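In response to the reviewer comment on reproducibility (Comment 2.3), we provide here a single inverse folding case reported in full, input and output, so that an independent group could reproduce the run without further information from us. The structure tokens appear first.
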């Protein structure tokens, strides 16, 4: 996958840079396990072994070192730094990933610090390294990242990437560095922000430095981030078929690894109760209500076309709710986590500089 530049020249002389994303969505088998899990109900969920919901992967290419070597990286909104697998790694989680070999790059500089990293499905450890990192034709010299020499956790063996490109809100002194903040700090992009479009007509794109107006149908509306809650904004009201769902302090969090929507069992049970029965044979979907998120001055409607999971197997089509109840961390009981399905409807601007999220209808 080649990174493509391009876009929109701004008055300051800097341009937006568009990087193609490769999207990998869950397979039939992933959804089948979850469907059985959901059928057991909330009480069973709270008392059984917690399973990971099906994951979505959004991958972008970067190069590291000189001469450059290509790595396929997951764009991850839950962490700030960047890590790649070390070629010296011998744990099962490192196979068959492309490894980084510092001796092959004339631009490498050792940092010496030992690092430990937590990622979805496990933990890893290694050391900090500095090298030239490039994305979309932009080159950052002396970029600090984690070179992981051990990857733990069974799930990491199955992931289709060589490392993680952290996209969580970050300050300017993070170590390892946040790639997006580093691009802005070095004067390579016009604003300290990026956007993600999963357009059906224009393809999946990571836009560095702002928003591409060609990827949206209407103007953006912006909402301030909640303090201490990465890429999370307050929900003023959640309505289904005109009826408000009783919530004390609801919030909306954006997470690219989520294919549909997840939340605590209590929250999701109330949402699904408001939606009503979704026929397993996929009939009557047109009569299901929209779920409306009121974020203050702007409402975002989630239609059945967006929130219903449809799977196809030898036995035919099957449908069930994409609002999935899981055991959530303390403090997130009323947070609705929206992912791939939501961003396909709403082109999303992650504005680090102004600490806000922006949404517009996807073109």
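Designed residues, in position order:
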């Amino acid at each position: 996958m080649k990174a493509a530049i391009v876009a929109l020249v701004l008055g300051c002389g800097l341009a937006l840079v568009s990087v193609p994303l490769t999207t990998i969505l869950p397979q039939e088998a992933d959804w089948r396990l979850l469907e059985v899990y959901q059928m057991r109900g909330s009480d069973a969920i709270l008392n059984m072994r917690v399973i990971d919901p099906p994951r979505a992967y959004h991958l972008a290419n970067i190069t590291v070192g000189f001469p450059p070597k290509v790595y396929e990286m997951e764009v991850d909104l839950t962490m700030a730094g960047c890590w790649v697998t070390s070629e010296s790694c011998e744990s099962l989680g490192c196979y068959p990933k492309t490894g980084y070999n510092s001796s092959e790059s004339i631009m490498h500089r050792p940092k010496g610090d030992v690092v430990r990293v937590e990622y979805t499905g496990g933990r890893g450890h290694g050391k900090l390294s500095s090298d030239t990192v490039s994305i979309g034709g932009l080159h950052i010299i002396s970029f600090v990242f984690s070179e992981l020499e051990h990857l733990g956790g069974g799930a990491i063996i199955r992931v289709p990437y060589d490392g993680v490109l952290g996209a969580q809100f970050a300050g300017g002194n993070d170590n390892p560095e946040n790639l997006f903040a580093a691009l802005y700090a070095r004067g390579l992009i016009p604003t300290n922000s990026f956007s993600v479009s999963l357009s059906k007509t224009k393809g999946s794109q990571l836009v560095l430095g702002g928003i591409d107006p060609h990827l949206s149908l209407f103007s953006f509306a912006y909402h301030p981030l909640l303090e201490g809650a990465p890429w999370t904004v307050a929900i003023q009201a959640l309505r289904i078929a005109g009826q408000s769902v009783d919530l004390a302090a609801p919030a909306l969090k954006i997470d690219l690894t989520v294919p549909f929507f997840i939340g605590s069992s209590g929250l999701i049970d109330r949402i699904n109760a408001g939606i009503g029965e979704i026929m397993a044979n996929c009939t009557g979907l047109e009569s299901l209500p929209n779920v409306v998120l009121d974020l203050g001055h702007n409402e975002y409607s989630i239609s059945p076309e967006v929130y219903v999971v449809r799977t196809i197997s030898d036995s035919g089509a099957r449908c069930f709710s994409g609002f999935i109840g899981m055991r959530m961390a303390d403090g997130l009981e009323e947070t609705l986590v929206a992912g791939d399905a939501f961003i396909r409807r709403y082109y999303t601007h992650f504005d680090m500089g102004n600490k806000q999220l922006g949404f517009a209808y996807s073109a």
